[in-house]
Amino acid sequence: xxxxLIGSMAVLVIIGAANGVIGGLIGxxxxxxxxxxxxxxxxxxxxxxxxxxxxxxxxxxSGCIGAWxxxxxxxxxxxxxxxxGAGSAIGAVAGVALQSMIEKETAKAILYVVVLFxxxxxxxxxWKEKKSAGQExxxxxxxxxxNIGFLLLLGMTTGAVCALSGAGGxxxxxxxxxxxxxxxxxxxxVALFDSVFIAVPSCVGYLARIDWKESVVLLFLIAITxxxxxxxxSRFAGKIPVQGLKRFIATFSVGISLYMxxxx
Length: 264
Known about the structure:
Blueprint: H1 2-29, H2 35-43, H3 48-72, H4 78-99, H5 104-131, H6 148-165, H7 170-179, H8 184-207, H9 216-235, H10 242-262
Helix pairs in contact: 1-2, 1-9, 2-3, 2-5, 3-8, 3-9, 4-6, 4-8, 5-10, 6-8, 7-8
């Protein structure tokens, strides 16, 4: 009995610490949330439904806190966010429904592939930024995000992928917005707000598949520690070398996803 109690306490400590650290990383550079579902399924052995329910609860918290802070700084385009978010909410509902139709092992594989893609995309984007440093960036005269049909389609696509895989949102949405002509800072704010539209239907959908009443303490712990992490991280956002942090997150993501796909 004592051993079981100690084991349960250890799991709670691990989950609380992980949510605090990953929340801090999100507060600093806007990415890293996609590591949470991998922690739950890979290291702690939770089911895919449990992992996604716990992860999307955290994404809901970080999205709200992050978007609020970017709004305060004047880096959140509300009209753009709402149009994109409408599509994302529809896509998220479809993603949750689709996830229930596939094998659990397939769902895990999709998660690991998305994490692998996310890590590679971060490294590629950093390489492009370094290559174009010192050069005047050519801006497209037409911003694709002015087209509401395009925004809805973009939101539905990314929302479905994120809800299905547990990617969270910003790591996929932010670079796509930049490619479409949105400034990098505004893109992070919009992506964080968009993650709320993805997280709400995803969190509700996945919580409905588990016995969440037995996990109230755990859910509370996740919300509090993740929220504190995001808030603290955002306070130090301008004092920490973000490039090195992004490189570490990306490299770690690539390594752990390859391990889970081909070794574990």
